[in-house]
Amino acid sequence: MKKILLLTYLFLSSKSFALELAKYPIELSSGDGVNVVIAPTTDKKQALIKVTGINHEIDGITFLTDLKPHGSNNAYKYTYDGSERSLVTVSEGYRCCSYTLYIPETRDGTYLSKKEESSPAIVADLKAQYEQQLGQSIQAKLANFNREKHLGYQQKKISAANSEIDKQCGLKIETTVEWKAINDDILKDYAVGAFCAQVATEMANMCKNNQSFKNDIAHINAIECQFTDKLKLRQNGETLTFKTAPKAPNQRQFIQSYLLNL
């Protein structure tokens, strides 16, 4: 799958060599060190964009973006970590446009102001940088879904929930997930760790609110979580098997009710 994505990305990106870019770039700045250069095509449907001054792996990388609708505005979009993202949004106002930068893994956008004068030499430099990075497959690697990074995020949520049981209940109850059974699409679209940590989280909360509850779960030493399309919770000896479903409602109440009847 990754090879197909890489080949597709390279095929589409190779069109950049024939791109007709506008003479003047758009230079933007946050005022505190974040800078963005946009080199639109003459038809204004695409643009080369480079962001600098941020502590992120996309810093200094030039991306070929597509200008697409984004709510009531437009956005220059690119592929990062397996999905299409908005890199810079463009809001048209009375005096043309306002721009906002969106850095991956951050919630808030960075507002940018436009520099009044720009040099045509910047466009040629930006295209040369893009072609060099393209030859090194830098953009293609960033476009691929980073499974290990996402696994790390989700596993930390599981570990935190396990630690909270120890803290609130004084019990060692480990939540485990068969991560090999979780495909990339599920890992990309859902916070698997948060879903699977729900039983441990409720146990910790119930101990916090009522210390005697720890006696009710003292015989449990493991929680096995499965990511499915049906919500179920069953006890098998010293293990709780939890099947969580992302679209199932009222999961917290469901878990609480089950735990109270152990």
Number of strands: 12
Order of helices and strands: HEEEEEEEEHHHEHHHHEEEH
Number of helices: 9
Average pLDDT, rounded to a whole number, is 92
Q: How big a fraction of the residues is strand? A: 25-35%
The domain count comes to 2
- What's the story with the biggest beta sheet? 8 strands, antiparallel, barrel
- Given helix and strand content, the structural type is alpha+beta
Please give the order of strands in the largest beta sheet: 1-2-3-4-5-6-7-8
Based on CA inertia axes, which overall geometry fits?
elongated
Low-confidence runs of at least 5 consecutive residues: 10-16
Structure description:
By secondary structure, this protein is of the alpha+beta class. It has two domains: 2-143, no CATH class; 147-260, no CATH class. The protein has helices at residues 2-13, 121-135, 138-143, 147-169, 184-189, 192-196, 198-209, 213-216, 251-260; strands spanning 26-29, 35-40, 46-52, 62-70, 73-80, 83-93, 96-101, 110-114, 174-177, 222-227, 232-236, 239-244. The chain has an eight-stranded antiparallel β-barrel. β5 and β6 form a beta hairpin. α4 packs parallel to α7 (198-209) and α7 (198-209) packs across α9. The longest helix is centred in the middle third of the chain and has 23 residues, at 147-169. Mean pLDDT is 92; it is low at 10-16.
